Every structure is written in C-alpha cells, then in structure tokens.
Amino acid sequence: MSDRNDRWGDLLRRANRGDGAAYAAFLTECAPVIRNIVRARSGGGDEVEDVVQEVLLAIHAKRHTWREADPVTPWLYAIARYKTVDLWRRRKGGTPVPIEDVAEVLPDERSGEVMAARDLAGMLDRIDARSAGIVRAVGIEGESAGEVGARLGMSEGAVRVAYHRAMQRLKEMAADETGRTG
C-alpha cells in the first residue's frame, strides 16, 4: 500500500480514538486530493468547493464506518465519487420525461462511448507501454500518482511528468487524426 494510504490510515485511526490533532492533519492532507478528484470528475465549475465541503462533511459523519483493516484511500475516493455524482444529478435538474416518449428520436449514446474507447485504446497502443500503463492507471482507473509510482518504482513527481507527457502525445495524435479527417 502507498505511504499516503498508510499515513492517512494511521491518522484516521487515531482520530477515531479521539486524537483531534490527528483528525486535523488527516483532513488537511486529504482535502487537496479530494479537491483534485472532484474537479476532475465534475469538469470544474463553481460548485467544486461546495462538493469538497460536502465530501468533508460526509467523511466526518461517516468516519466510524471505515474499517480500520481496509485501506483508507478507496473509502475516501468512493465518497468523493458519490458526492460528485450527486452534483451531476443536481446539474441535470429539469422535468423528467418518460423515455418511451422520445426513445425513437434519441441517438444511441453507447455507440459513441464504444467508438471513443476503441479510439483511445488504439492511441494508447501507439505510445510506449509504460506511458500507456500510467495513463490507464491514473487517467482511467483513478489511481493516485503515488500509488502508480510505488508499483512502478518511480517517484510521484516522475509519474506526474510521465502522465503529462503521455497525455500531450495523445492530444497531438488526436489533433493529427482530426486534421486529416476534418
């Protein structure tokens, strides 16, 4: 498990036993990571800080539900994901319309997702295996740079740099393909 996960687990264990300083350190350290998760999953916007606060409140209210034998980061990330999904639901708003009334005129959204996934897989196959693995782990599976670095024997900073460079290569490939077809 990552150093971050071990440290946060230790801080939350101590916090659950009444150590206020450990709880303050836990929240201070995890808040920027939660903010990054929410920003990435929500597409940014004015509501990011509101969602971060909702996540921190949920952590406070539900911290007793974390099983101390389990890693803490997946528990935290799940709360952040759920609160971000709530944001998407609030954004959608509107009046519900029965799908049967419009099913014939709606495009098949799955075909676009399948095409995008196929295109991404094809582009990932055209870059080096390590970079493709980093993009899959960080960008698709949501692992932290620290977790990926620990697994690959790289520093967290080196993973971030490799991820950024790989994303730049993918962006350039996509631009080249769009320029050729458009």
From TrEMBL:
Keywords: DNA-binding, Sigma factor, Transcription, Transcription regulation. InterPro entries: RNA_pol_sigma-70-like (IPR039425), RNA_pol_sigma-70_dom (IPR014284), RNA_pol_sigma70_r2 (IPR007627), RNA_pol_sigma70_r4 (IPR007630), RNA_pol_sigma_r2 (IPR013325), RNA_pol_sigma_r3/r4-like (IPR013324), WH-like_DNA-bd_sf (IPR036388). GO terms for molecular function: DNA binding; sigma factor activity. GO terms for biological process: DNA-templated transcription initiation. Residues 29-92, 124-172 form the RNA polymerase sigma-70 region domain. The keyword Transcription applies. It comes from the Bacteria. PANTHER family: ECF RNA POLYMERASE SIGMA FACTOR SIGD, RNA POLYMERASE ECF-TYPE SIGMA FACTO. Belongs to the sigma-70 factor family. ECF subfamily. This is RNA polymerase sigma factor. It comes from Pseudooceanicola nanhaiensis.
